[in-house]
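Q: I'm writing up a methods section and want to include an example of the input and output format. Could you take the sequence below and give the corresponding predicted C-alpha cells, formatted cleanly so I can copy it straight into the document?
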Amino acid sequence: MRKRVALLVLVCLVAAMLVLASCGPAATTTPPTTAPPTTAPPTTAPPTTTPTKEVPKYGGTISFVSVTTTVTTTFDPAIATTSALNSGLVYGRLGVGDWTKGPQGTNEYSFESTWVADPYLTGELAESWERPDLNKIIWHLRQGVHWHNLPPVNGREFTADDVIYSFEYNKKDPRSVWYGTGAKMEKIDKYTIVTSEGEPPVSYRKLHSWTNWLYIVPKEAVDKTIADKTTLNDWRYTVGIGPFMLKDVVSGSSCTWVRNPNYWRSDPFNPQNKLPYVDKVETLVILDESTALAAMRTGKIERHAVSFDKAEGLRQTNPELLSRRINPDSAFMVFLRTDIAPFSDVRVRQALMLGVDYQGITRDFFKGEAVIQTWPLAQFMGAAYTPLEQLPADAKELYSYNTEKAKKLLADAGYPTGFKTQLVCGTWTRHVDEMSLLKEYLAKIGVDATLNVMEPGTYVSSLYGKKYPGMIYVRGWSNNGDEDVLGWAHGGWVGSKGEPSVYNFSNVVDPVAVEVFNKIMTEPSQAERDRMRKEEAIREIKLAWELPLPTPVWYMFWQPWLKGYKGEVGLGPDPPETSMVYTYTWVDQDMKKQMTGR
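A: Here is the clean output for your methods example:
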C-alpha cells in the first residue's frame, strides 16, 4: 500500500517541499521527526499507566496552522494521502496508535512520527483482532458505536456492513491506495469481518495496511452525493464516527470542527470521562512561516512545528512555551547510479562517504541540530536501529572524515586522479546551498561534480526515470516505515513480474537484499524481524548504495495551557495524519485567559 502513497508523498516533497502538512514546517526550512539525538528511543517502560496529575476540563478551542491549502479542498477519505487531517478527526479506522503506550502513559513508544509500529497499535473501530496466519486477519468490531447524529445517517449504529462498504468504495477509486487490490474482505456476522490477501506479498505488514489507509464511510452519505451530483470531496457531505464533526470550511483559509457529543471513546487515564475534551478544533492556513511564528508567539495557535534554526529565537521571545526536540523520520540523501561506472564500484561509493565531514556539517552547517545516521533505518525503529557509536568498526569508519583513505580507495578502483560527474538537485534554495557544500567536499578527494540544477518537473522526471547523470539529491526521503528503505529503495519490493521498485532510485540489484527482505516480511516474530533488520541495515550501510547526509532535527512547540500533551507528532498508523492527538488533549481555559486575556 505504501508504494502508491510514497510516490505521492515524495513528489510533494520535491515539488512543494512540505513536511507534516497539517502541523509541520516546510521541508525547505525544516525536516521531519524523532526525539533524543543519536540514541534509539526507549523500548521499555515505566510501570503501568496512571491518570494524569491534573484533572482534565472540558471546553475551549485548539487552533493550529496548516501550511497547504489542500486541507480546505480535499475531504474524500479515499484520497487518504491529502485528506488525512480531516479524515483523522471525522472518520474512523480499524486501528490506531495506542495513546497509553506513549509519553502520557508507559512511554514504550515516542510517537515522534506519523508512522506507528505494529506492537504499538490498538483497536479503534476494531476492538480486537486475531491472526491465524500471515494471510488472514479476523477483526472483532466494537459494538454500540454510532455514526454522527447528522443526516443522512442520523446516529445509527456502526456495523460490519460499513467496513465492507468502505473497502469496496476504496477499491473502485483510482485515487485510493486500495484501488485494484487483490485483497478480500468478508462479513462473518454483524460485528466480525475477515480480511485476506489475494495477491503477494503475503506478510506480517498486512495488519498495518488494514489499520492504515482505510477510513470508514457511510453508504448513505455516498448515495446522497450521487443523488446530488457531487462527491465526498464536498465537505458539506462529511459525516463520520470520529471525535469531531466538520462544521465549516473557508476555502484556502480555514477548517473548523466541533466536538462529537456521542463519541464512543473514554479517556484511558480518566475512564469516567468521555472524549474529546475540547469544544472546537480549527486549522488556519498560513503559508508564510514568519506569520505562523507570530501566531504562536501571540497565543493564537496552540501547537506548531518549528525548524531548528527558528527554535532558539522562539524560545527567547516566548520562554513560557513548551517544546520537544524531534529527530528526523526522513533522510537527506544523494542517490547514486550504481548501475554505471564509477558508482558501480563499492570502493568509489565508500570513498564518497569518507570524503564528507559528517561531524563538521552537523556542527557548523546545522549548528549541532542534525542527526548523522538516519539511513537505512530511522532511530525510532527501536531494537532494529544501531546507533552510530555502536556500529561495527568498518561501518562506523565510513562516517569519519578521512580524505586520504578516500583518495586511496578511488585509486584502488582505477581513479587515481578522481573523476568527473554531475550532481543533480532542484531549484530550491536549500537544495543548491547544501549541494554546493557537498561539491566542495568532493573536490577535496578529486571528484569534480558539476552542479546540475533542474526545474521541478525535469527534476522529478529525472529521479523517477532513474536516468540522472551520476548523482541526484533528495532532501527528505521518507524512511519512517520498516519497509521503506529495505523494500522500496533496495529492491525488496518487486512487482508480480519481477520488475524493481519505482523507488529504487540508485538502481540497486542485490539478490541478498531481496532474499533478506522477503524473510523479514514473512517472519511472525517481532524480535526476530528486528534482529534481521538490524543485521541487514549494517550490511547495507557498508555497501553505500547511497550517500547519506546529516539530516536536521526540528522542534514541536506548544502552549502551556495545552494539557495532556508532550509533543506527540501523530498516532499514525502511517498517513501524514497528525490530528488524532486532539482527541486526548485539553485546554486550561483559565490559564489561557490569564496569559492572553482571551
